[in-house]
Amino acid sequence: MFVFKAVLIIFIFEYLTQTQALNALNYYGDSAYPGRCVVDMSSSVVLMNLGESVKLDSLPCTQIFCMGDGWGMLQTCDYVPPPNDCRYTAFKHWDAEYPRCCKRHIVCD
Asked: Is 41 a residue whose pLDDT tops 90?
């Protein structure tokens, strides 16, 4: 079982790092909940198992994907500069699932 879990974590990590996003591997473990990712959302605590994710409402288009044993991948939208003389404005789909929520309106002067 351990080998299967390790291979699955490596596969998930490889998949996530191939996407167009800024990723950061972090430890979200808590000894009170062994093997799970624990995220304090200020109004509640989210407990996740391997393969589950939660979108952070406090940050635009950011999610935590649980990779198991308390390890999770924080994912945010990749920054791609807008065309010359243009700027980003609001997110097009603020409430959409990650990464669809990354799309933004562009205004050109």
From this structure: no
Taking only the tens place, the pLDDT of each residue in 49-108 is: 999 999 987 888 899 999 999 999 999 998 889 999 999 999 898 888 888 899 999 999
* Contacts for 51 with CB less than 8 Å, ≥ 6 apart: 12, 65, 66, 68
Q: Residue 14: enclosing H or E segment and its boundaries?
A: helix 2-18
Q: Residue 69 burial (CB < 10 Å; 0-12/13-18/19+)?
A: middle
Instruction: Provide the β-strand partners of residue 46.
Output: 39
Using CA atoms, how far apart are residues 64 and 25, in angstroms rounded to an integer?
9
Helix (H, G, I), strand (E, B) or coil at 86: strand
Please give the backbone phi and psi of residue 16, each rounded to the nearest 5 degrees, phi first: -65, -35
Question: Do 107 and 86 form a contact (C-beta atoms < 8 A)?
Answer: yes
